[in-house]
């Protein structure tokens, strides 16, 4: 390598260490300079800079760490150190808040990923309503009939009716949660969304979920 090229690599490495003012290994510097110079050239430059006392070198086990000579930087005042401590605390709190937000978003994404699609919810609601209407009609016919119904048959009907009401309530809750999630990123109101995806509410169908 020519002398001018070596000088260019040394200047680039020295400027980087001064700007960052933190310890790095040769590999870190090579990568952080976006591999602008070959790794061998970076290692040679670091060794030469350390030999010339332009940077400091520390050895930890088998790894060498390089950093700028701190004597070239002015000492920070008490006020500056206090300000840096406060900024460190602020940034730490900000990182915690961002991590919590990330976890929340990941949880929401997982919920949405594992939930039914909008089309599936619409079909489930339609099927459940039809089944409830069929059973309600059957129940009305039986309760209005003066002929006594076998107790076991009656109990079976009531049990099935109760089961379907619970399923109706469960699926309505799932549909509501899904619609609310979609609305978070939807530009228009709820009525516009329901019309766009073709969802018919209980109110639209003039039906009411039994208590």
From TrEMBL:
InterPro entries: Hop2_WH_dom, LZ3wCH, WH-like_DNA-bd_sf. Pfam families: LZ3wCH, WHD_TBPIP. It comes from the Eukaryota. GO terms for cellular component: condensed nuclear chromosome; DNA recombinase auxiliary factor complex. Residues 149-205 form the Leucine zipper with capping helix domain. It is found in: Nucleus. Residues 118-145 form a coiled coil. The keyword DNA-binding does not apply. Residues 10-68 form the Homologous-pairing protein 2 winged helix domain. One of its GO terms (molecular function) is double-stranded DNA binding. One of its GO terms (biological process) is meiotic joint molecule formation. Keywords: Coiled coil, DNA recombination, Meiosis, Nucleus. Belongs to the HOP2 family. This is Homologous-pairing protein 2 homolog. It comes from Ornithodoros erraticus. The lineage of its organism: Eukaryota, Metazoa, Ecdysozoa, Arthropoda, Chelicerata.
């Amino acid at each position: 390598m020519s002398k001018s090229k070596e000088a260019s690599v040394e200047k680039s490495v020295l400027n980087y260490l001064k700007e960052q003012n933190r310890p790095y290994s040769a590999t870190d510097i090579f990568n952080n300079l976006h591999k602008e110079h070959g790794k061998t050239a970076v290692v040679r430059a670091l060794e030469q800079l350390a030999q010339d006392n332009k940077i400091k070198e520390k050895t930890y086990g088998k790894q060498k760490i390089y950093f700028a000579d701190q004597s070239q930087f002015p000492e920070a005042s008490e006020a500056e150190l206090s300000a840096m401590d406060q900024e460190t605390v602020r940034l730490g709190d900000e990182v915690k808040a961002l991590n919590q937000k990330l976890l929340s978003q990941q949880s929401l994404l997982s919920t949405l990923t594992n939930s039914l699609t909008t089309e599936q919810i619409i079909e489930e609601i339609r099927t459940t309503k039809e089944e409830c209407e069929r059973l309600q009609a059957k129940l009305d016919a039986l309760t209005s009939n003066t002929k006594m119904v076998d107790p076991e048959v009656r109990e079976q009907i009531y049990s099935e009716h109760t089961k379907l009401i619970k399923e109706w309530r469960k699926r309505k809750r799932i549909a509501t949660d899904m619609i609310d999630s979609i609305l978070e990123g939807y530009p228009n109101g709820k009525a516009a969304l329901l019309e766009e995806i073709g969802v018919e509410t209980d109110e639209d169908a003039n039906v009411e979920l039994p208590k």
